[in-house]
Amino acid sequence: MAPSNPLSYWERVGDSFYRKVPVYDAIFDEDVELENYIVAGAPYGGAIALYRDESKLYRFQGAQTTKSSIDIYSCSGKHINRINWEYGSIRGLGWSDKEELLVVSEDGTVRRYFGLFGDFTSFSLGNGSEEYGVRACRFWTSGFVALLSNNQLVAVSNYEEPRPRLLAPCPEGEVSSWSLIPPAYTLSRSVEVLLAVDKTIYLVDPTEAEDKVLQNGPFKHTSVSPTGRFVALYTAEGKVWVVSSDFQSKFSEYDPKARTPPREVEWCGDDAVILAWEDEIHLVGPNGVATRYYYDGHVHVIAEFDGVRLITNDTCEFLHKVSDVTEEIFRLGSSSPASVLLDSVDLLEKQSPKADENIQRIRSRLPEAVDTCVKAAGYEFDIYWQKRLLKAASFGKSVLELYNSDEFVEMTEKLRVLKAIRDYQIGLPASYEQYMRLTPEKLIERLVNRHEYFLAIRIAEYLQIPADRIYVHWASQKVKVSTVDDEAVCKLIVRRLDGKPGISFELIAQTAFDEGRAHLATQLLNHEPRAGKQVPLLMNMEEDEIALDKAIESGDTDLVNYVLLHLRSKLPLASFFRMINTRPMASALVETSARGEDSELLKDLYYQDDRPIDGSNVLLSEALQETELERQTEKLHLASRLLADSKDATVVLQQKMLNESSQLLKVQEALDQEIAEREEYVGLSLNETVYRLIRSGWSKRAQKVQSEFKLPEKTYWWLRLRALVAKRDWGELEEIGKNKKSPIGWEPFYNEILGAGNTKLASVFVPKCTNLPVEDRIEMWVKCGMTVKAGEEAFRARDVNTLELLRTKASGTAVTEIDRMINQLRPRK
Amino acid sequence: MAPNSASDADYFRDKARKDLLALLEGVRGKKNVVISQDLAGPVGLFVKFSLLQEYGVDRVFLLENANVDSTQRNVVFLVHAEKARHVRTVAEQIKRLQRNGNVEHEFFIFWVPRRTLVSNSILEEAGIIGDVNISEFPLYFMPLEQDVLSLELDSSFGDLYLNKDPGCIFQSAKALMDIQQRHGYFPRIIGKGDNARRLADLLLRMRRELDAEESSGLNGLPARGLLPSASTESLIIIDREVDFGTVLLTQLTYEGLIDETVGIKHNQADVDTTIVGPGAAQESSKAPQQQTSKQGQKRKIQLDDSDQLFSQLRDANFAIVGDILNKVARRLESDYESRHTAKTTTQLREFVNKLPTYQLEHQSLRVHTNLAEEIMRVTRSDIFRKVLEIQQNNAAGADATYQHDSIEELIARNAPLKTVLRLLCLESCMSGGLRARDLENFKKQVVQAYGYQHLLTFDALEKMELLQPRSSATTMLLPTTGAAQAGLKTNYNYLRKNLRLVIEEVSEKEPEDVSYVYSGFAPLSIRLVQCVLQKPYILALTKGGSAPASTNTNAASTTSPGWLGFEDVVKSARGATFSIVQKGDDKAVRARQTISGNNAIKTVYVYFLGGITFTEIAALRFIAAQEALRRKIVICTTGLINGDRMMDAAIAKGGFAKEE
């Protein structure tokens, strides 16, 4: 192939060059009258959607074509799909960066077509769009804004879970043009809209509409540059202004000297503005310098972030700024090292010694030259020049001792992929930079959407990207189109996908189910390794029992709860219980969630399960939640009644205690009425009741309660002791001390009374603690401050050492007393 | 795989912080944050309130208080999505704000740790799913210390053993998957207990599912971790159920006792200001809840390794805490005095430079001295001593019926219900249930003393298998029968002998065995871990009679993996016993082994499912110190637990009294 001149199509605009690369020719049939169509192109060289512009008159072409439809073509003009459209007039046609086609109709219905073949989801814009109607829409890569005819703006920023949101209300008036700044490029991180109303422009975000106070409107066109930094305005006087997006500074002005305003104003990269008339394109660079292109037919402009695609019936061209590296190499008279390196390859092939001379000359900057050549290869569309540049890089690299070839290798990989997808059969003319932004994964997705499975798999393998999605898509497609019986399809799919990692059979099964092939879906699901994944589909398929089992198998409580929630609302109670009965985890979860929220369900459950104690406990906890005494007793009675017929020992005990509890409440109620000023006793425990009665001096009543409830003697004594100490009723305590025996011994009396500070009374109990060792008793005396008594104790035990110890602690007369005792014990001395 | 140099604790702390801040950043402008109680504390572990403020958080509300107002347009909910109750509360509050709002609110929900299907359907039912922006905050492990990771699931104990809700097992598995994805698969999973087995099964299943998903790009992770880890030795899972007994004992380390007396939550203790004095210039930034709970009476004390003194004290037996405090006090004093000896200006400057550290130390010394005194007051009390005596007798395996009088006395003296129940449960756990007649008797006394609502409490305790009548089957579990009836119940009597749980002569000062944490009783859970990690030591301990030197350098026999050598003994503890090897691609494993070398110190993850006590942490640290040359131990758990919290799960709320 004869090398084309790399400089062909270059056009100087101011300081930089632009070039228009023809990518494809013979795009559309002659009978497609492009001027009558609205054209929307997906970003990164994606598909093109054509829709007949309703405002234009056109030749009648037979009944068939009067049906309106949206046609999807590849950039090379290959017809991909036709979507019949009978849902009213289309007010917005755009693409997301996932190559989903969005169609907004006048009444605010949005359809999102994914996968290029007519699958869609839809949602409504709401917010008054039904009443006022949608006027127009502007799209960015992951969302869009719709302008209603009452000048309200509705933004959707996420298609997965669309949440149409009203932006700040904007002023009345005729909107002459508008545009948006994508959220990624605004300070507020939400989408902002430029609305040209009357003479000025408003900047509208979710919270406010700010008047930018301009005088030169109405602006027929407003257009925001891809990075949101600049805005191009077409003024009332027919001039193009480029201003900063905060409207603080004006960068350039250009007068196209045209009588009619251009049809479209778009940005070509971030530096130049395209003005498009029917058959004429003006490229306006910085400082208002411009160049013009003329066409024979109608030309459509599709903006990309690094240039524009120009579509006519005959050609698809890519107009973009010549990159710095390319310019450095190819510009006439360039003497940059990279350019010299490229020359050297020619010389080398001619076996001229000058090749080496050249290399030596640029030796010091050789690495840089190699880098430049590699980069430039990426920007080149022509395969000849790609090869040349890579060859130059490879030559330069071979001279260098140390050079990291990673970039070189990667570039060759990328160029191979690009070559494959740019082929007219595929028709994805992505530029190098677009491919980088798109990422290989998304690229494969696009290929899959076009059903180019083979190429997709080859690329995935080449780039070592997981290919499972491709297989899944293929299998789903197979399920959709195949007409053979379920067994055969399943077998075919399983055989093909055998051993491929990460295959989601659940997705394929979902497709099968959606296609109405439930049996096939079940069969496919059996191959899904992830239990959790199967659950939602199984529920859709009404395979409730299997769904529940799979959910339990996954161990994910959320899934189980989810299935249970679903079953509970769907099944009659009896079958629901039957379902969970044999599954302990499920019934545990049902019990847990019912507790405190749905006690009726619990009661039913326990009744069915024949668990009387559990059932009565539910009633008991309900009783606890009641505030009225009658209601409490009532619930307690019910709880007790549930246990009535049983002979089981624990049940009998339980019932007995329940009865006791209502009995206690009754007693307490009576106490409250008879002796308390306000409610004092109700709600206390039995021990507390007795304690309080004694403390308040109602010993008789306390005794009565004790006997009525068979309170153990020991407990009663403790309560009496503590209550009397708290009451400081020393007399009564002393009286008790006269008893011979105490079921709890006398030590507690000593301790409690001493703790309350009455050493005198405490000491009374010391001699009664006969069961304690002498040392303890001595200690007790000492604690009461009665050293002499302690001494006597020691004396009785004939413990001289302790006595001497005591002597050191003693004071006053006690000293002599103890001395006397010591002497008595040591008579011989 | 590149070696991960940062410790797991740092990694998870950074990740959690980054994730949360990124989410907050996604909400433009000022916002009010509503946080559920069970998250407020944990969030404080990795992010300071001042930092939240920098990210536009204006005020923080507690979900439970239901008092969020309309002062900000943006309202962010940070709530656990696993609990339907929480989700419903969120839905209610959003609806309330929508109704009475003259402000058009923008709602954001950050579900922790994931967006659940149930939450979706609840919001859908409430009709608000379209009005809220929902994101996930995948918060699983939170670092308490460098060696302790916790899920901080307060309710996990009750969920797991009372409600039999395995939700926290699933969350544990997810959390452990995080670790596996970071380091590679645990080459071996060893465990004890039925729930532990369930967790291990889940881990295996998740690994299979991840393998299936790995290459599909669905999870967005690069294909890594397909191999068993080279830096990890094993994962040891201990189900709490295996050893309830340990938790029921009163913890006797300093940190454990603080937990018993004051309570430690998320590394913080609420201490009465009368004890520790008012906080000097409280940092306003400590925890978000400080904004909302204004109870001037309490002061939050941070208890972690940032406090040098505390890190010395925390794992020591309380008996020697006084000594340490004295020593530190004397050292500090002499350090202070050094200013007099400072002659040259450089010396003086040195001293002045150190002043802030001295002051900090001084402050912490004062706090801990006061705290220790307060605890001392408790430990000296009659009731505490009585309780301890009963516990020790039970632990030592003395005939429990002799303790019954003491327990009855405690009931009559109105000792705290939890204390009484702990003793009863302890007896039941240690000796395989109470005699039916005794149990009946105690039941009666407890409901009479503390209220009839505790019929529910007993029911719950029985469901948790904490307090049961001794069945005919379990009477066979008396010491003579050994390892019969394996797996149904932990047979402490058998294990006490065969794992030497009770060590008579224990030095609290220079401990030689983990039993120091309970002054003579070694937690069974820890002995089990030792059966895996310190085989020779345990063998010597049980066979040799005399305890060998703790620094056992005989590493050769430690290589026998899993339960090997102890299979029979371990059978007497409750639940499944397992040791699973996770195999990977052999060639790759070998290749990696040659790269990394075999002698590197490997990490052992010890996972306590259902909660861990501070004493067990102390004991594990004790082991870790002995093993420092061979391995690193990272402790993971669903949350911290003690006997009181265990009882909390069971004790019936409410009573018959009217609310006043």
UniProtKB/TrEMBL annotation, chain A:
Residues 503-812 form the Vps16 C-terminal domain. InterPro entries: VPS16, Vps16_C, Vps16_C_sf, Vps16_N, WD40/YVTN_repeat-like_dom_sf, WD40_repeat_dom_sf. The keyword Protein transport applies. One of its GO terms (cellular component) is endosome. GO terms for biological process: endosomal transport; intracellular protein transport; vacuole fusion, non-autophagic. Residues 8-409 form the Vps16 N-terminal domain. The keyword Disulfide bond does not apply. Keywords: Protein transport, Transport. Transmembrane segments: none annotated. One of its GO terms (molecular function) is actin binding. It holds the Pfam family Vps16_N. Belongs to the VPS16 family. Essential for vacuolar protein sorting. Required for vacuole biogenesis, stability and to maintain vacuole morphology. This is Probable vacuolar protein sorting-associated protein 16 homolog.
UniProtKB/TrEMBL annotation, chain B:
InterPro entries: Sec-1-like_dom1, Sec-1-like_dom3a, Sec1-like, Sec1-like_dom2, Sec1-like_sf. Gene3D superfamilies: 3.40.50.1910, 3.40.50.2060, Syntaxin Binding Protein 1, Chain A, domain 2. Residues 279-301 are annotated as: Disordered. It comes from Aspergillus cristatus. GO terms for biological process: vesicle-mediated transport. Residues 282-295 have a biased composition (Polar residues). This is Vacuolar protein sorting-associated protein 33A. Belongs to the STXBP/unc-18/SEC1 family. The chain crosses the membrane at residues 604-624. It holds the Pfam family Sec1. Keywords: Membrane, Transmembrane, Transmembrane helix.
